[in-house]
Amino acid sequence: MNIKIFECLNEKYVFDVNKNKIIKITNDTYQELAEKKNKEAEYKSAEIARLKSAGYLSDIRPEIIEHPATPFVEDILNNNLQKLCLQVTQNCNFRCKYCVYSGEYENRGHSNKVMSWEIAKKSIDFMIAHSKNSESMNVGFYGGEPLLHFDLIKKCMEYLEESVQGKELTYNMTTNASLLSEDIVEEILKRKFKLTISIDGPKEIQDRNRVLASGKGSYDIVYNNIRSLCEKYPDLKTIINYSMVFDQRYEFSKIEDFVINENALFEGTQIMGNLVNDNYKKGKNEWSDQFAEEWEYSKFKYMLFLLEKVSAKYNSKIMRNSYMSLIDIIKNTRKEYPNLSLKDHPSGQCVPGDVRLFISVDGDFFPCEKVSETSNVMNIGNIDKGFDFDKIRYILNVGKISEEECKNCFVFRNCEICSSMCDAGNGNEELSKAMKIVRCKSEKYKFVNQLKTLIVLKKYGFNIDKFLFDATYNNV
User: Residues with Cβ < 8 Å from 18, sequence gap 6 or more?
Assistant: First the structure.
């Protein structure tokens, strides 16, 4: 049977992979399923018979691992591009210690390279030519620090607006906000622009890692600049999101208190919080006991908030992201699914370049900005030659490098592994099966914990519809 059995709160459950459903079962049924795992077994339980007659507990598994988009890759990328991410520069006026450009990662490093107008214009023309079926177009600006070259950004926006009619045009950018000025704010407020500002917490937290090129802490210049610009331009706050990186070596509670107490800064905004990225990192991330304790306690408090056991004032919105993948699982378990196809692929991989085509300062194509620029396998083309569809199909079918393991995996419909997690980033032409197997183990562990958390939330009255649509939930 294509199932996963587990226990939670002294009760027994089975997760049906084909149906993508969690079913509570009796102790006897649990014991019988645990003892008779092969599909030839004869089951005595009446409950098993009822579930089978309702279409559950099927033996169906994919026989071939192949992404369903494989035959359509060329059509998708030739006609449906919607998002472009331009690497404006590899330079930055900060030297954040955990940054992918810091020298601690295999995939990037600081340089003085700047995207030329010729490459930027070709990139926009490429997007226009490959977006015939798209009703909207989005261009993101990436660095380094993109505001070092706002003149190029402005030129790109004006060129796109002159060249495109009948499509919604939107823009986004991640910035450290130190160079954000009144002139820049006035330009972006003319457009549909989403601004993500990087700030890590109060002064002592921010100044540990997010330092200027001179080595001086950045908190004062960033905080004061954001506050003064939002006061002068109230509409600015409506387009801001914040990005926080949590260094697992230090206190977490101070970051949470900062978000709760700085209501003037964060009210009405979203916060995307992430732990220090370990993908392509040369060494392992370190966790302090204090951070681990405070992190888990904050997650627990947020669960109590979701269950309406404690008020919003005891929680910060930075824990919301930690629950979003769980919310996706809840939404997906509400849907009706057909059985897995005989030719199918785990869920984690998108069509490379379709979600957000990343173009480097040199005009090389990558699936998105998260992958390694030093990896041959992740280089999926360039601005002069176009897409390398053979590489794209290879990356798309990342499940093939561990085909037998994927066929029998209970996380098949809920996998979050993509090709970047299987790439050593050292110039290799192939993805790493060894790296993927390591990720698979952690993915299985995480998913079982998510199933258990889901059961706890449901048992004690969590209202997912209120979470999705109620402003009280969404603002925390």
Answer: 2, 56, 58, 60, 337, 339, 340
Spatial separation of the C-alpha atoms in residues 53 and 327, rounded to whole Å: 29
Ordered mean pLDDT values, 10 residues apiece, the chain (476 residues): 95 97 96 77 87 94 97 98 97 89 63 95 98 97 96 98 96 97 98 97 95 95 96 96 93 92 88 81 81 93 92 84 88 92 96 96 96 92 98 97 96 95 85 95 96 95 84 68
Residues with Cβ within 8 Å of residue 227, at least 6 apart in sequence = 264, 265
CATH for the stretch 61-476: 3.20.20.70
Three-state DSSP string of 365-433: EECCCCCCCCCCCCCCEECCCEECHHHHHHHHCHHHHHHHHHHCCCCHHHCCCCHHHHCCCCCCCCCCH
Residue 18: half-sphere exposure toward Cβ, Cα within 13 Å: 18
3-state secondary structure of 45: coil
Distance CA 452, CA 329 (A): 12
Looking at the chain, the domain(s) classified CATH 3.20.20.70 span 61-476
DSSP 268: T
Provide the 3-class DSSP secondary structure of residue 71.
helix
What are the residues facing 138 on neighbouring strands?
83, 170
Distance of CA 162 to the CA centre of its chain: 32
DSSP 73: H
